[in-house]
Amino acid sequence: MCKKWLRKNASFVVAVLLLGVLVGSVTGCVAESHEPYTQNYSALTTATDFSLGGEDRYFDKLQKDEENVLLFWGSWCPHCESLIERIDQLDSADAIKKNLFTVAEDESLDDVEGHKGDFPIYLDQDKSVYEAYGLEHIPTVFILNDQGEVLGSAQGEEDSLALLQEYASYNQ
Protein backbone atom coordinates (compact mmCIF):
# COMPACT_ATOMS: atom_id res chain seq x y z
CA MET A 1 0.00 0.00 0.00
CA CYS A 2 2.78 2.41 0.94
CA LYS A 3 4.75 1.77 -2.30
CA LYS A 4 1.63 2.24 -4.38
CA TRP A 5 0.83 5.55 -2.64
CA LEU A 6 4.44 6.75 -3.11
CA ARG A 7 4.41 5.98 -6.85
CA LYS A 8 1.11 7.75 -7.27
CA ASN A 9 2.17 10.80 -5.27
CA ALA A 10 5.88 10.90 -6.12
CA SER A 11 5.80 14.45 -7.47
CA PHE A 12 4.04 15.63 -4.31
CA VAL A 13 6.65 13.93 -2.10
CA VAL A 14 9.50 15.43 -4.13
CA ALA A 15 7.93 18.89 -3.89
CA VAL A 16 7.59 18.60 -0.10
CA LEU A 17 11.20 17.43 0.23
CA LEU A 18 12.46 20.28 -1.97
CA LEU A 19 10.47 22.78 0.06
CA GLY A 20 12.08 21.44 3.22
CA VAL A 21 15.56 21.79 1.73
CA LEU A 22 14.83 25.34 0.53
CA VAL A 23 13.42 26.42 3.88
CA GLY A 24 16.43 24.96 5.64
CA SER A 25 18.89 26.78 3.39
CA VAL A 26 17.02 30.10 3.68
CA THR A 27 16.94 29.93 7.47
CA GLY A 28 20.68 29.27 7.37
CA CYS A 29 21.09 32.75 5.84
CA VAL A 30 19.40 34.48 8.77
CA ALA A 31 21.67 35.79 11.51
CA GLU A 32 22.07 33.25 14.25
CA SER A 33 20.28 34.05 17.46
CA HIS A 34 21.53 33.09 20.88
CA GLU A 35 20.35 32.94 24.43
CA PRO A 36 19.37 36.30 25.96
CA TYR A 37 22.11 38.14 27.79
CA THR A 38 22.26 37.25 31.47
CA GLN A 39 22.69 40.85 32.60
CA ASN A 40 20.16 43.59 32.07
CA TYR A 41 20.47 46.12 34.86
CA SER A 42 18.83 48.97 32.95
CA ALA A 43 15.10 49.39 32.44
CA LEU A 44 15.79 50.84 28.96
CA THR A 45 14.43 48.69 26.17
CA THR A 46 15.53 51.05 23.40
CA ALA A 47 18.67 53.14 23.47
CA THR A 48 18.47 56.89 23.05
CA ASP A 49 19.90 58.20 19.81
CA PHE A 50 22.12 61.26 20.11
CA SER A 51 23.86 63.75 17.86
CA LEU A 52 27.54 63.33 17.15
CA GLY A 53 27.69 66.83 15.69
CA GLY A 54 26.31 68.09 12.43
CA GLU A 55 23.99 65.56 10.83
CA ASP A 56 25.79 62.51 12.27
CA ARG A 57 23.79 60.45 14.76
CA TYR A 58 24.86 57.56 16.98
CA PHE A 59 22.28 55.19 15.45
CA ASP A 60 23.95 55.80 12.06
CA LYS A 61 27.09 54.18 13.52
CA LEU A 62 25.34 50.95 14.56
CA GLN A 63 26.59 48.02 12.49
CA LYS A 64 23.72 46.52 10.50
CA ASP A 65 22.73 42.92 11.28
CA GLU A 66 25.19 42.86 14.17
CA GLU A 67 25.23 43.49 17.89
CA ASN A 68 26.89 46.69 19.02
CA VAL A 69 28.57 47.77 22.26
CA LEU A 70 28.03 51.18 23.85
CA LEU A 71 30.39 51.93 26.75
CA PHE A 72 30.05 54.93 29.07
CA TRP A 73 33.33 55.71 30.84
CA GLY A 74 35.61 58.48 32.06
CA SER A 75 39.38 58.82 32.02
CA TRP A 76 39.27 60.02 35.65
CA CYS A 77 37.46 56.81 36.75
CA PRO A 78 39.89 54.11 37.98
CA HIS A 79 37.27 51.38 37.42
CA CYS A 80 36.78 52.53 33.82
CA GLU A 81 40.50 52.57 33.10
CA SER A 82 40.84 49.15 34.71
CA LEU A 83 37.97 47.80 32.59
CA ILE A 84 39.63 49.07 29.41
CA GLU A 85 42.95 47.51 30.44
CA ARG A 86 41.24 44.21 31.22
CA ILE A 87 39.47 44.24 27.84
CA ASP A 88 42.85 44.76 26.14
CA GLN A 89 44.23 41.70 27.94
CA LEU A 90 41.44 39.39 26.76
CA ASP A 91 41.90 37.03 23.82
CA SER A 92 38.52 38.34 22.65
CA ALA A 93 39.52 42.04 22.72
CA ASP A 94 39.17 42.36 18.95
CA ALA A 95 35.66 40.89 19.01
CA ILE A 96 34.67 43.39 21.71
CA LYS A 97 36.27 46.39 20.01
CA LYS A 98 34.92 45.52 16.55
CA ASN A 99 31.55 47.23 17.16
CA LEU A 100 32.50 49.28 20.23
CA PHE A 101 31.45 52.91 20.54
CA THR A 102 32.25 54.86 23.71
CA VAL A 103 30.86 57.91 25.45
CA ALA A 104 33.45 59.61 27.65
CA GLU A 105 32.24 61.64 30.59
CA ASP A 106 35.27 63.93 30.39
CA GLU A 107 35.65 67.68 30.02
CA SER A 108 38.19 67.92 27.20
CA LEU A 109 39.81 65.97 24.41
CA ASP A 110 43.09 66.16 26.32
CA ASP A 111 41.52 63.94 29.01
CA VAL A 112 40.92 61.06 26.57
CA GLU A 113 44.08 61.57 24.51
CA GLY A 114 45.59 58.34 25.91
CA HIS A 115 42.86 56.31 24.17
CA LYS A 116 42.79 58.19 20.88
CA GLY A 117 42.75 55.60 18.09
CA ASP A 118 41.88 52.71 20.42
CA PHE A 119 38.12 52.99 19.78
CA PRO A 120 35.55 55.64 18.78
CA ILE A 121 35.06 58.20 21.55
CA TYR A 122 32.22 60.70 21.86
CA LEU A 123 32.99 63.40 24.41
CA ASP A 124 29.87 64.03 26.54
CA GLN A 125 31.06 67.32 28.07
CA ASP A 126 27.63 68.47 29.22
CA LYS A 127 26.59 64.98 30.46
CA SER A 128 23.45 65.17 28.29
CA VAL A 129 23.86 61.64 26.88
CA TYR A 130 24.64 60.25 30.34
CA GLU A 131 21.47 61.87 31.68
CA ALA A 132 19.36 60.78 28.67
CA TYR A 133 20.27 57.18 29.50
CA GLY A 134 19.36 57.72 33.16
CA LEU A 135 22.77 56.56 34.35
CA GLU A 136 24.06 56.76 37.89
CA HIS A 137 27.44 55.03 37.58
CA ILE A 138 30.27 54.38 35.19
CA PRO A 139 31.48 52.24 33.66
CA THR A 140 28.20 51.21 32.09
CA VAL A 141 27.83 48.94 29.06
CA PHE A 142 24.89 48.41 26.74
CA ILE A 143 24.63 45.70 24.09
CA LEU A 144 22.37 46.91 21.28
CA ASN A 145 21.06 45.46 18.06
CA ASP A 146 21.17 47.51 14.85
CA GLN A 147 17.78 49.05 15.66
CA GLY A 148 18.98 50.40 19.02
CA GLU A 149 17.09 47.82 21.09
CA VAL A 150 18.85 47.01 24.37
CA LEU A 151 19.83 43.33 24.48
CA GLY A 152 21.88 43.51 27.68
CA SER A 153 23.33 46.06 30.09
CA ALA A 154 25.67 46.21 33.05
CA GLN A 155 27.26 48.76 35.33
CA GLY A 156 30.44 48.62 37.36
CA GLU A 157 33.77 47.14 36.39
CA GLU A 158 33.13 43.45 37.15
CA ASP A 159 29.59 43.23 35.74
CA SER A 160 30.57 45.22 32.65
CA LEU A 161 33.51 42.92 32.01
CA ALA A 162 31.31 39.84 32.44
CA LEU A 163 28.76 41.22 29.96
CA LEU A 164 31.51 42.07 27.46
CA GLN A 165 32.92 38.55 27.75
CA GLU A 166 29.45 37.13 27.15
CA TYR A 167 29.08 39.45 24.13
CA ALA A 168 32.43 38.21 22.78
CA SER A 169 31.39 34.57 23.19
CA TYR A 170 28.32 35.26 21.03
CA ASN A 171 30.07 37.48 18.48
CA GLN A 172 33.45 35.96 17.64
Characterise this structure.
The protein is α/β, with parallel strands linked by helices and 172 residues long. It has two domains: 30 residues; 120 residues, Glutaredoxin (3-Layer(aba) Sandwich), CATH 3.40.30.10. The protein has six helices and seven strands; from the N terminus they run H-H-E-E-E-H-H-E-E-H-E-E-H. The strands form two sheets. It has a five-stranded mixed β-sheet with strand order 5-4-3-6-7. The protein has a two-stranded antiparallel sheet with strand order 1-2. Strand 6 and strand 7 form a beta hairpin. Helix 3 packs parallel to helix 6. About 10% of the residues have low confidence.
Which helices and strands appear, and what pairs or packs with what?
Blueprint: H1 2-8, H2 10-27, E1 51-53, E2 56-57, E3 68-73, H3 78-89, H4 93-98, E4 100-104, E5 121-123, H5 128-132, E6 140-144, E7 150-155, H6 157-170
For this structure, the CATH topology of the largest domain is Glutaredoxin
Instruction: Give the integer mean of the pLDDT values.
Output: 85
**Uncertain parts:** 13-30
Strand content: 15-25%
State the CATH class of the largest domain: Alpha Beta
What is the annotated CATH architecture of the largest domain? 3-Layer(aba) Sandwich
Main beta-sheet strand count, sense and barrel state: 5 strands, mixed
Give me the secondary-structure category: alpha/beta
Q: What is the molecular shape?
A: globular
Number of domains: 2
Output the number of helix runs.
6
> What's the alpha carbon Rg, rounded to whole Å?
22 Å
The level of helicity is 25-40%
The topology string of helices and strands comes to HHEEEHHEEHEEH
| CATH homologous superfamily designation of the largest domain | Glutaredoxin
Ends: how far apart?
52 Å
Q: How are the strands of the largest sheet arranged?
A: 5-4-3-6-7
Number of strands: 7
